[in-house]
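Glycosyltransferase involved in cell wall biosynthesis
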Amino acid sequence: MRIALVSDCYLPRLGGIELQVHDLAVQLIRAGHDVTVFTVTDGPSADIPVVRLPAIAGVPLAGAIDRLRVELESFDVVHAHSSLLSPLAWHAARLARAAVITVHSLPGPTMPWPIAQIDRYAGNVGWTAVSEAVANVVRRALPGRTVDVLHNGVDPRAWRPVGRADHPLTIVSTMRLSRRKRPIALLHTLAMIRDLVPADVCLRAVIVGAGPRERAVEARRRALAPWVELPGRLSRYEIQQLYASADLYLAPAELESFGVAALEARCAGLPVVAMASGGVGEFVRPGIEGYLVESDTEMARTVAELLSDTDVLTRIQQHNRLTDPLMTWDHVIARHLVTYATRIAFADGSTGRVKDAVRTGYLIDTGPGAGGRQGNSFDGDGMAVRRRWR
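Predicted structure tokens:
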């Protein structure tokens, strides 16, 4: 299958969408598919095929759209990854014969979000979201439309700690240092935790990441919580090493659409304490993988209690180390491939056989739009899709 992944934001810029689109491309290529990423983010060559289109302030130039139109004609399906503002992704969905849009962001309660206009502009696309939390928002904005969930994926084995050396009680969090992720609120929460935990208990806290609020966060850290470390941007390997010597992960964002960093921490065996308002609750059950809270004060109190209860802390850590979440790449790729096959069937006019295709695992492409394709086959669980070419 020829798959175009389109994302306005991409590596080397670091963030949830950027890393997930890259990892999705890698996993699809490993499964035998032909994948190219299209983006307006400038940068060097990459380990997978990337087309970097010219843009000004993130808005693709007219020539870029012309090139995109020509390039997308040779792809079976276009998967557009959308944040709250993603003009390239929306253009790609409109230009594609078979398109899927995945929404990666939660809008704020007062933020204008013209998703109905985007839907009309993009045309007949399949809407998806990275979590039920995001999907519910899209469903309310697009009544009558089906909005499926395509979770972000993780490789739990990559995050399993090999061993755990002695270390002080360590709290970690990984984020882009932007207002939306609430890093300064996290510093206030950490200060409250330090006040609640007995003074003779040695505490360490590390906030990993970089971003537009970096200077403000550093200034507030010096004034509020000088014991907190800000190492800046770390590689994935360095984050894995940090998690291996940590005890607890905090996710303070109130508009967390999914929480890939929290999922990775959970796979590393860390209890996750997160805001209940986002998508983290889809892989964190209270008292099992961590806790979901309604406020910064509740987060501080919950963490202080957990750090003082070694039995509960150890039980959750062991559970998280030994239990894979549902969002492993095998499951996530399987779901993506079924979604792609469904959109291709609609585009080819085979709507009457879409349900049979998903049920039986076989989809025949016929008609003038088939472009020489003989068929897609995948097993009953959708675990692999292979296309035979003439």
